[in-house]
Every structure is written in C-alpha cells, then in structure tokens.
C-alpha cells in the first residue's frame, strides 16, 4: 500500500488505521516546521504552501480495499505520517471521501500551523478529532522548539488555533511536547497555560521526546517537570499524562516499517532497532 498503514495500536485512538497524506516515494519529509525533537530527522526544505501530493482518489481506492478486510479491526482512521498532513491541499476531499465511505471516526494529527487559513479549517471541519501541536507559550520558545518556515509565526499559530476552536464542533486535543530546559520551567508553563485557557481545548495531551530526536541534545523533562506541567496546565484544562497519551507502535512495526521504507527513512529503524509510537509523527 502507498498511502495506508496499520492498523496500529494507540492508547488514545484504539486500533488506528493510518493515512499518510504527505507520502512521496523516495522523497524527504514534507513539513513547514523543523522541530528539535522530530523523530523523522531535519526538514531539509521548509514548505511554505499547500500542494497536491497524489491524486486523492488513489488514496480513497486504497482505503476502500483495506476496509473490506480490516473494518472490524479498526477503531479510528487517522491522518498522520511523514510530514504535516494539512500541507496536502486535497485533505478536505479525502476527509469527506472517507466519511462517505465508512462510519469509522476520523482523526487528524497536525502541527496546527496552517489553521490560520480558513480553507484548512474548512477541510478539517468533518474530522471527529483534531490533535494540533502547541509546545510554546511565547514566541522565543516557539522559534527554539518548532523552528518554522518564516511565514508561520507564533501569532498566526495561536490565532489559527483560536479561530479553529471557535468554529470546530469535534474534539480538539492539543498536544504539548515537554522538552527539558525549553518549555518545562514555571514561567514557560504559566505562559502556555494562559494561552491554553484562551483556546479552551477539550483536552491537552502531554508527550515526551523519548525517541531519537533530530537534535541529540533534546531530552524529555524530568519527573519534577512533568508534575509541574500537570499542575499548572491542569488548572486550565483537562491534562492527559504522557503514559496515557502515547501510543505504542511496536505491535504495528511492520506497517510503519513499510511507510518509513517507502519514504526513505528505514535507516532510523535499522539504527534503533525497535519502533515505538510517540503520539504523533508530525
Ligand atoms: S515533529 Fe511534526 S511538525 Fe515537527 S518537524 Fe517533525 S513532522 Fe514537522
């Protein structure tokens, strides 16, 4: 399969059938951020615009065939993969096509950077859950952690999340990666909490960089930092602990291996031996 992988077990999404909307055989990661913790390696070319990656009907055909065999073994269909899903300009067509094909709920795991665009918010309107990233409560921390393409500013990120929350009727689950020394101190967490309170997500999922990151100096926060984050962010929203937020892809290794092989990242698996799901690839 070219665009579909799994199903893979995920604690939040049960048995999740993955769709990689930025699949480009043999090509590098397609993203507009270059996060220090990214497990896919550096973003060599920061994308600015959305684009077509493949004919959406090709993915829908593949999914239709997969569901004939797997429908009883799947709890969610999830857009996630080898880059930022909303950079695929056909995301809305694909999402509507899936909803016409199956009653399974659909989730989109995204960095959230393009939510300032009305057309992206419209594309995502039909998803049952959207999981955008919010790692920073101030611009400097955002630039240090997410290292975005310059069109994607901190303010546009916050504005997009806020606008999406006001329009979107599905589940909005923010994801925050806690990186030691970057966003786990009291001041950073208080700033983040203030923004989270304004956005008012349904939940905030804490995740940790426990897989080999792009930058070797990246470390997860320690137990004290995690407790601090739970306490400060827990004042403004429901916070999900990393142990609950993480999924484990080890059982779905073959499926993920196929995807990473196709996208040229099989070296990561050979080097590190075992595959775990970190919550979100993007
Ligand atoms: S973690 Fe996600 S958003 Fe960040 S660089 Fe990697 S693919 Fe892009």
Structural features:
8 strands; alpha/beta; TIM Barrel; disordered C terminus; eight-stranded mixed beta sheet; globular; 282 residues; binds iron/sulfur cluster; 10 helices
Q: What does this molecule look like?
A:
36% of the residues lie in helices and 14% in strands. It is built from ten helices and eight strands. The chain has helices spanning 56-70, 91-101, 118-124, 139-146, 154-167, 186-199, 223-233, 242-245, 253-262, 266-272; strands at 4-10, 14-19, 76-79, 106-110, 129-132, 171-177, 203-207, 239-240. The longest helix has 15 residues, at 56-70. It is globular. The two termini are 20 Å apart. Mean pLDDT is 88; it is low at 247-282. Iron/sulfur cluster binds at residues 29, 31, 33-35, 38, 40, 43, 83-84, 111, 281-282.
Helix count from the secondary structure assignment: 10
Average the pLDDT over all residues and give the rounded result: 88
Instruction: Give the distinct bound molecules.
Output: iron/sulfur cluster
Whole-angstrom Rg: 17 Å
Kindly report the name of the CATH homologous superfamily: Aldolase class I
Describe the strand arrangement of the main beta sheet, using strand numbers: 1-2-3-4-5-6-7-8
**What is the CATH fold-level name?**
TIM Barrel
Structural class: alpha/beta
For the secondary structure, the number of strands is 8
What kind of oligomer do you see?
A: single chain
Counting structural domains, the number is 1
Shape: globular
Unreliable spans are: 247-282
Tell me the fraction of residues in β-strands, as a range: 5-15%
Q: Largest beta sheet, briefly?
A: 8 strands, mixed
By CATH, the architecture is named Alpha-Beta Barrel
CATH class annotation: Alpha Beta
Our measurement of the CA-to-CA distance between the termini, rounded to an integer number of angstroms, reads 20 Å
